[in-house]
TrEMBL record:
Single GO MF annotation: ligand-gated monoatomic ion channel activity
Transmembrane segments: 154-172, 216-234
Entry keyword annotation includes Nucleus: no
Family annotation (InterPro entries): Ionotropic_Glu_rcpt, Iontro_rcpt_C, Solute-binding_3/MltF_N
Identification of the protein by name: Transporter substrate-binding domain-containing protein
SMART domains in alphabetical order: PBPb, PBPe
A single GO cellular-component term on record: membrane
Organism domain of life: Bacteria
Record keywords: Glycoprotein, Ion channel, Ion transport, Membrane, Receptor, Signal, Transmembrane, Transmembrane helix, Transport
Domain Solute-binding protein family 3/N-terminal: 40-369
Amino acid sequence: MRRSWLVLVWALAIWCFGTVGAVAQQAPAEQSPTQQSGRVVNVGVYVSPPFVMAGKDRTFSGMAIDVWESVAAHTGLAYRYVPYPTISGLLDATRSSQIDIAVTNLTITRERAETISYTQPWYDAGLRIMVVNNAGSGFSDLFNGLRDAGHLRGYASLLVIVLLATLALTLFDRRFDRDFPQRWREGIAESLFHVVSLVTSGKTTRKNLFGWHGRLIAAFWMICGVATLAYVTSSVTSVMTAISLTQNINSLADLPGKTVGVFTGSVAERFIGDLGISSISYDDLTDAVPALKAGHIDAIVADAPILEHYDHSNPEQKMAVVGSIFHPDKYGFAFPYDSDLTTPVTLQVLEMQEDGTLAIIKQKYFGNSP
């Protein structure tokens, strides 16, 4: 009897171990994202130098790309790049899980964090302003301003009057002044000097030939000269003042009343809209800069490192980045909400911060700038 019970116990034990083994084979232990063999991560990118730059054959480079590829190498993730033409398109693809991760200089905001997940920030940035560099173009601006205001036509009329007055004065003095030069070129030069002296200073040293009558005539011409000088001075001053008011943008405080270029779906677009400043949205700088140079917009507001890199890399465009950084923000990689990639990628970003890898990558693209 005792032997029968032992046989029954051993049979039951063998059955239990066999069942557990079968269950273990049917339901293997869950693997982390970095251990899943055969998984290829779709990486959405938005071209934004120097963080993401497009090369040939769908290759990409830049600071954000270097950071991501270092993360991927340490976590064992295979990936393919999927480019998007706008930030808003990249964000929409992230929210809808069309891609597994968004890689670019993507600003972390509370509104975005409600629908997508972010890594630890890997870059501190903010917004700045880019305008056309007007240094050295003062005369051109003044000439265009005088022309647009109609003053050049007035100056042309004054020139005709000066020439006619010079001729009339020459004929008059040749007849009544015995000391007046009789050679035409010398006489015209003498008369032109007197007329221009009246126009530019309101004064002249002309000889009085007719007593008190001559004094009255001289006084009349002096009044005409002073009026002419006042007109020229006031017209130039008014145009220069208008140029200063309409073109000088040096800070955020100068933007109200102007039209600003921003990128579609960017933080700058939202920020400028909240301030009530008129704006026009563009896909990127290749669209916004021509609009700025053509006068369709007065300035471009975007991420400071993007504008600074463009200005440094394209000196022939004659742009200028002005003012200090405002609306400071941070960049991070983004994932669909509750993505299983968020934690391992964030941990690797933190490790890169702690071991100095991020600082080395940043120095590669921005030098020793703070």
